[in-house]
Amino acid sequence: MDINLTLLAQAVVFAAFIWFTARFVWPPLMRVVEERQKTIADGLAAAERGMKSLEDASARSDEALKSARAQAQDILAAANKQAVQIVEQAKATAKAEGDRIVGAAREETQREVAQAKDQLRKQVGELAVAGAAKILKREIDPKAHADVLNELAARV
Amino acid sequence: MTPATYIGHHLTFLNHPVGQGNFWSLHVDTLVTSIILGGLVFGFLSWVVRGATAGVPGKRQAFVEVCIDFVNEQVKGIFDKSFSFVAPLALTVFVWVLLMNAMDFLPVDIVSKGLKAVGVHEFRIVPTADVNTTFALALAVWLLMIGFAIKVKGVGGFIHELFCAPFGMAKITANPLSWIGALLLAIANFGMNLIEYLSKPLSHSLRLFGNMYAGEIIFLLLWMWASTGVIGTTAAAILGLGWSIFHILIVALQAFIFMMLTIVYISMAHEHH
């Protein structure tokens, strides 16, 4: 082992190389690496944000779908109700109309019956008068015997 | 050529005296190889980094980023504080030592033949098998360690820890016996710290040196065997292949250990006791 001036020379060379590395190799490369790390981190963060907003959007769309479905249900229910109502109303109207028609017909019938009765009564009166005249063989004054005739007619 | 001259030849540095005495000389081979390797690799790194993009990296940039990220992860795992200086330091140590270790894979005889053709007769190609290199690195790290310790704790805090850790401090009372106790404890603490501060650079540098030197010697022994005939050549080729493959592990592992110890020592300097 011969220690000599080489030791000091090598130490100086070593120091020079350390200085060179610390000055020209390490910092620029670290800068580049850190810059890339930052870019990647930013990209990942952006992806994260995108994912999040996608989640939000799908949640919102679910919400909207749900509310639209509920609304459709409501509208359907209302329409059904309305339809039932209209049918009920139509039924009621028809019933009223039918009643009215039946009533009118009944009235007409009664009226005709009454009329027929009146006519019949009148004819019966006339027949009675004619009969009586034939029996009595003389003219009966309808005026003089109106009360009798009327009593007869009422009895028929 | 005898085995001794063969191995001796390959273990002789290209020595260039610059003054009187043994100390004042330079190992030109160690210096040239390490400077060329460092220049190549750090030049390559800075070239890649200059063209680096924050977008999608190319293959070259990705490779460099993987290497640097590997070192960065190690530093982050040990240091939880700011490590703006320690990480580039660790990178320098790792990459440089790795390449210097990897010089062991070059076939020594072909290299020395080629160098002989240009008039260089002695050349050791593995700078980390030169104890000067490993000591230079370890001592630089050691100085940084002490520097960081003083920077973090202050000169007072550093000296305080020299005498008051790891055993702590005795309580000083009016009793004169307690003064003696405190003094003894301070001496024990200082002794422990002295051993620690001495053993750190020694183990740091000698571990790397020993591994690389041993690897070099084993290669030399195999190549010497290879010159003894057909059987020797075949055996040396097979064993040489095996040792080279195993040596890949050692080269990378020693570089990694050297880097890890560098980080650990400097992070230990940041600890308060």
Summarize it:
The complex is a heterodimer of chains A (about 160) and B (about 270). Chain A is mainly alpha-helical and about 160 residues long.
**Rg of chain B from C-alpha positions?**
24 Å
> Regarding quaternary structure, how should these chains be classified?
heterodimer
Percent of sequence in beta strands of chain B: under 5%
How many domains would you count in the coordinates of chain A? 1
Q: Using only CA atoms, what is the Rg of chain A?
A: 61 Å
What's the helix count of chain B? 8
Distance linking N and C termini of chain A? 171 Å
Describe how the helices and strands are arranged.
The complex is a heterodimer of chains A (156) and B (273).
Chain A: H1 5-136, H2 146-155
Chain B: H1 3-10, E1 15-17, E2 25-27, H2 28-50, H3 59-78, H4 86-102, H5 108-117, H6 131-164, H7 176-226, H8 230-269
Antiparallel strand pairs in B: 1-2
Helix pairs in contact in B: 1-7, 2-4, 3-4, 4-8, 6-7, 6-8, 7-8
Structural description of this entry:
The complex is a heterodimer of chains A (156) and B (273). Chain A has 156 residues and is an all-alpha fold. Chain A has one domain. Helices cover 91% and strands 0% of the residues of chain A. Chain A has two helices and no strands. The longest helix of chain A is centred in the middle third of the chain and has 132 residues. The radius of gyration of chain A is 61 Å and the shape is rod-shaped. The model of chain A has no long low-confidence stretch (mean pLDDT 89). Chain B has 273 residues and is mainly alpha-helical. In chain B, 74% of the residues lie in helices and 2% in strands. Chain B has eight helices and two strands. The radius of gyration of chain B is 24 Å and the shape is globular. Chain B starts with a helix and ends with a helix. The model of chain B has no long low-confidence stretch (mean pLDDT 90). The interface between A and B is large, with 30 and 45 residues.
